[in-house]
Amino acid sequence: MEKIFIDRLDHQGRGISYKGGKIIFVDGSLDDEEVICEIDVEKKKYYEGHVTEILKMSSSRVKPKCPYYELCGGCNIMHMSYEKQLDFKKKKLSSIINKYASSNVAINDIVGSKQFNYRNKITLKVNKKIGLYKKQSNDLVNINECLIVDANINKVIKVLSEFIFDDIKQIIIRSSINTNEIMVCFDNEVNDEIISELKKYVSSIYVKDKLIYGNSFLTEVLGDYKFVISPSSFFQVNTDQAFNIYMKVLEYCKLEKNDVVLDLYCGTGTIGIFLSKHCKSVIGIELNPDAIKNAWINAEKNKISNIEFYTGDVGKVINNIKCKPNVIVVDPPRSGLSKETINFIINLNVKKLIYVSCDPMTLARDIKLLSDKYSLQEVTPFDMFPNTYHVESVCILERK
Fold first, then answer.
1. Alpha-carbon distance 39 to 20, whole Å?
2. 21: pLDDT confidence band, cut at 50, 70 and 90?
3. CA angle centred on 327, ends 321 and 329, rounded to 5°
4. Which residue among 146, 181, 268, 284 is least packed, with the fewest CB closer than 10 Å?
5. 61-107 confidence digits (pLDDT tens)
6. Cα diameter, the chain
7. What's domain 86-114+238-399's architecture?
8. Are 294 and 336 in contact (CB under 8 A)?
9. Catalytic: which of 37, 185, 358, 395?
10. Could you confirm whether 358 is annotated as catalytic?
11. Could you tell me if 145 and 153 are in contact, meaning their C-beta atoms sit under 8 angstroms apart?
């Protein structure tokens, strides 16, 4: 046990202190707190520990509402006030961009979200009973509610928590916030009693990737547009923030009627569809074939005729695009842009690049790699994942 003072927070929201010249990362602490820390891990250059007692409490500390918070690995900064969470995320993004992208651009105020019931998807782990993994473990925390998911999803969780599952390892529940549809996907066969009970609450049931009840898709509404979502296709988990992000992308693009937009990592075509009526045409590229199927359906549903989609790895498919875009929008996974994609963007020499990022470190890396040709103009952070240390952002880069 160590009595220590927490100097600041790291990028994962852990407190930072020092012992014998080595850094200590302290889970569950806040800056300017004095705590008793128990060391859990000792490495050559650092320690990892957790708080056992708070001697001097931060004014930003709150009591987490979730009864599973101390055990569950889903959330990690729910002990921060929401105002503190937003401040932490903005400072984190600014620190990373300035340090690793060598940019002194000012970071706009972060766009906040509702703190609870915001997620439209949850992946439940199953070991006879349903639950979520404990922190840094594959052990299960059995739950009958998750405070950060949509209330309709929680109704299904409560139903499922009453059953024992023999051969199921994972259950995915998705919801459409604005149409109140629910989809449940089991990874293995499930007994008829469970299916019969679920039919009272859901609009779709899949078993081993096969639809056994209801609609093939969920339908979500964002602004003036409708979007279909299949079991495996990507859709932003925070529906309200997704709309805010897409509107920011539209604002940053400043599109003119003759502009051609290249939408890389386009998913189900959401961003491209939002942009389509403001430009000449949009070309979307996405690796997931199910997402591209959804994208074509979405274009048809919304009567969009100036958009087309290609399936494949972005780094390879982009070399087959024959038309010349003058605006590029990218929304890559946490791994960021591939080297092929970065080289393609540099060689294409478009006037404007809009980068939607879910990982500040890979964003900073990519901004640095693009810096010979593009300068970072503005960054707006979004709190897509309240109560976690993750932060989303939208950036505009312009050709030098």
1. 13
2. confident
3. 85
4. 181
5. 999 999 999 999 899 999 999 999 999 999 999 999 999 998 889 89
6. 66
7. 3-Layer(aba) Sandwich (3.40)
8. no
9. 358
10. yes
11. no
What letter would DSSP give residue 7? -
Please indicate whether the domains covering 2-61 and 121-219 agree at the CATH topology level. Answer: yes
The model's pTM: 0.94
Tell me the pLDDT tens digit for each residue of 344-353.
899 888 999 9
* Tokens 């494949």 belong to residue: 312
Listed in sequence order, the residues at least 6 apart from 242 whose beta carbon sits closer than 8 Å to its beta carbon are 222, 235, 236, 270
CATH domain 2-61 topology = OB fold (Dihydrolipoamide Acetyltransferase, E2P) (2.40.50)
Q: What are phi and psi of 249, to 5 degrees?
A: -60, -45
Task: Please tell me the predicted confidence (pLDDT) of residue 161.
Answer: 96
Q: Report the amino acid identity of residue 295.
A: A
Nearest 5°: the CA angle 362, 368, 369 is 90
Q: What local confidence, expressed as pLDDT, does residue 376 receive?
A: 97
Q: Point out which residues pair with 328 in neighbouring strands.
A: 262, 353
Q: For domain 121-219, is the CATH number 2.40.50.1070?
A: yes
Q: Which residues are CB-neighbours of 299 under 8 A, at least 6 positions away?
A: 269, 273, 305, 307, 309
Distance CA 203, CA 205 (A): 7
Q: How far is CA 142 from CA 67, 173, 182, in A?
A: 11, 16, 22
Locate the domains of the chain by residue range. Answer: 2-61, 86-114+238-399, 121-219
pLDDT, position 39: 93
Strands (E), 288-348: 307-311, 327-330
- What was the pLDDT predicted at 227? 95
Rounded Cα–Cα distance for residues 18 and 35 (Å): 13
pLDDT in tens, 228-259: 999 988 899 999 999 999 999 999 999 999 99
Residue 292 in contact with residue 314, Cβ under 8 Å? no
CA–CA distance, 108 with 84 (Å, rounded to integer): 16
Q: Which two tokens stand for residue 240?
A: 């309200």
Confidence of residue 392 (pLDDT cuts 50, 70, 90): very high
Residue 318 DSSP class? G
Q: Using an 8 Å Cβ cutoff, are 238 and 113 in contact? A: yes
Q: Mean pLDDT check: name the lowest of 207-211, 285-289, 359-363.
A: 285-289
Q: Is there a contact between 142 and 118 (Cβ–Cβ < 8 Å)?
A: no
Q: Are strands 170-176 and 210-214 parallel, antiparallel or unpaired?
A: unpaired
